[in-house]
Amino acid sequence: MAAVLVALLLLAAACGGDKKNASDTVSTTPAVEAGITQEGQPQQGGKVIFAVTAETNGWNPALAQWADAGEFVGSSFLEPLFVYDADQNIVPWLAESASANDLSESGDINEVLTRWTVKIRQGIKFHDGTEMTAKAVVDGILLAIRDGLSSVALGPMVQSVDVIDTYTFRVVTTEPWSAFLNVLAGPVGFVMAPSMLAKPDKGQSSPVGTGAFRFESWKQDDSVKVRAFDEYWGGPCALPSPEDSVKKLCAEVGVPLGQRNGPYLDAMEFRPIVDPQQRANALASGDVNMIMSTRAVDASTMKDRFQVVKDYNSEKTFVMLSTSKPPFDNVHARRALAYATDRAKIVDQVSSGEDVRSDTSPFSETSRWGGVPPDETGYPAYDPQKAREEIEAYKAQTGQPALRFKLIGLPPVEELTLMQELQEMWRQVGIEAQLETIEQTAYIVKLTQGDFQAAMFRNYGYPDPDSQYVFWAQETAKGGIIINFSQYYSDVTENALRYGRVETDRTNRREAYQKLSRDRNEQVIDVWLFDTPYALIAEKNISGLNWFRVLPWGNFMPKPYITGIWISR
Predict the structure, then answer these.
(1) 8-state DSSP, 256
(2) Residue 164: strand, helix, or coil
(3) Contact 298, 537 (CB under 8 A)
């Protein structure tokens, strides 16, 4: 859940030397789009320049707004307590273990799963040479809960965070929370050095962590540069006796036990290139060695020359409707828009021949929380005649002469083109949509104040549905900062959210979230378009990308395995 809060403000954005660089060498490694490839032994040396989709406004994850791009950059020098495996199970990274109290420890059923005890690994050094301790971890968590963006969600849920001993801390929640570890697998779980938090800006401009690279410099809107940290602990796969869950994770991604998570490179440089075509051109010209993309056309046109590693199943692109004001406080207006939207045509427009899907649920059909085909989720299928009927029902019920509204989005050409395509579709059935593109900061303000009718949006890429609680709950649909942007809630969704938070059985939790999804679809809160086509596109001599071939990464979660890449020669 905390990851969601940190991410929401930038959802819309996803919303040197004498060493050889990656572009200087040639490898016969074939381009691979999915599945593990044999990459051989890691090789030392060189530098990789990675172009990401956006700038980030600071490097303390408790205080800054890290979107998908920020998670890549920040994960080079900061590491989380936990990560996810391919089955979306929690796996310890800087942590060693975690346990919650049960009935044998608590006489009151209402106190079960309210005390989480976490042990961290010993002997791990920060970049300033000091050792990682439970006190350092707790200080970072408390900063997020008390002063960070996550305080809106975590403040009411966390009663206390206390140091037990040098390598152990305990979190006490105000109510049972079976999915709590998802918080520590997100930005709140990033561990920061005491020397970083002691700085006047809390390390926003000079972070100090445990990652394989140490922060070197940041020139805003230009680059972040990091250099290899020689005393890096190696990552969990390198441990002499890793936990069973770590062994499973390493096997899934094809990393032999004993192999370090870097640093193999001498340095990395991250460049924010916001314009997607300029980003693709930078890779094609050799100015950068790897890019992050959310356009299928990049994968389609570049796959013959470069490696393409896709995640087309995590995040969703959709039109979000505000149920708090006309016209979409009326269900007939919402249904009319859904019936009038030809998802197949939209997918054809954006896919460039790639296998882009159009799920009709926050949970992909292929995910452990989904499993339901798009035509069986209760979402209206494209039907212009039914759209016209719903428009007439809306007019009869409200007395309005027509269905009119404003659709807001961000300025990039691709988004405006998509908005224009939707506008024309809706016009054909008699829906009048005015389009407006807004600078990102103003766009965010409108969302958090509920000041919109319909908005282009991307969301729902998180590994566990509880991380999306804040987008659906009643308590976040009102107040000074609105996080349930659509402001829709019901007894069905509230019961599902509460049950999914306390239940431990995965099958039972999935059933609860399916009820939530069906309820939202029946009420048409989101007009589904397509699954966001994330891709990493890299020169063919960049190795160490198997993590991204196996694990979902098109989201706003930590990615500490980015530091395990190397240049094959």
Answers:
(1) P
(2) strand
(3) yes
In sequence order, the 6+-apart residues with CB closer than 8 A to the CB of 179 are 464, 466, 467, 500, 501
The DSSP H or E segment spanning 248 is helix 244-252
Three-class DSSP labels, 81-128 = CEEECCCCCEEECCEEEEEECCCCCCCCHHHCCCEEEEEECCCCECCC
Cβ atoms within 10 Å, residue 381 = 12
N residues, the chain: 569
Are 261 and 563 contacting, i.e. CB atoms less than 8 angstroms apart?
yes
Beta bridge partners of 535: 293, 310
| pLDDT, tens only, 517-541 | 999 999 999 999 999 999 999 999 9
Helix axes 331-339, 384-398, angle to 10 degrees: 160
| Paired strand residues for 293 | 535
Distance CA(174)–CA(155), nearest Å, equals: 10
Q: Which two tokens stand for residue 528?
A: 């589904």
Token pair 């708090």: residue: 324
Separation between Cα atoms, residue 490 and residue 477, nearest integer Å: 11
Q: Is the Cβ–Cβ distance between 556 and 467 less than 8 Å? A: no
Tokens (6 digits) for 300:
């389609």
- Which strand (E) or helix (H) includes residue 44? none
Amino acid at 462: Y
Nearest CA-CA partner of 119 in 90, 81, 172, 157 = 81
The pLDDT of residue 151 is above 90: no
pLDDT at 538: 98
Q: pLDDT band for 412, please (50, 70, 90 cuts).
A: confident
> DSSP of 292-329, one letter per residue?
EE--HHHHHHHTTTSEEEEE-SS-EEEEEE-TTSTTTT
Token pair 């273990």 in the structure block, residue: 97
- Please, which residues have CB within 8 angstroms of residue 125's CB and are 6 or more apart in sequence? 131, 132, 210, 231, 233
Is there a cis peptide before residue 156, judged by omega within 30 degrees of 0? no
Q: Is 33's pLDDT higher than 60?
A: no
Nearest to 186 by CA among 376, 466, 428, 499: 466
Residues 177 and 114 sit within 8 Å (Cβ to Cβ): yes
Q: Which residues in 167-248 belong to E strands, given as ranges?
A: 168-173, 213-219, 223-228
The values of phi and psi at residue 393, to 5°, are -65, -40
Q: Would you tell me how many other CB atoms lie within 10 Å of the CB of residue 399?
A: 7
Check if the beta carbon of residue 501 is closer than 8 Å to that of residue 179: yes
Residue from 66, 67, 50, 94 nearest 212 by CA: 94
Pairing of strands 403-409, 454-459: parallel
Distance separating alpha carbons of residues 206 and 431, to the nearest angstrom = 51
What is the rounded distance in angstroms from the CA atom of residue 162 to the CA atom of residue 498? 26
Sequence letter at residue 27? S
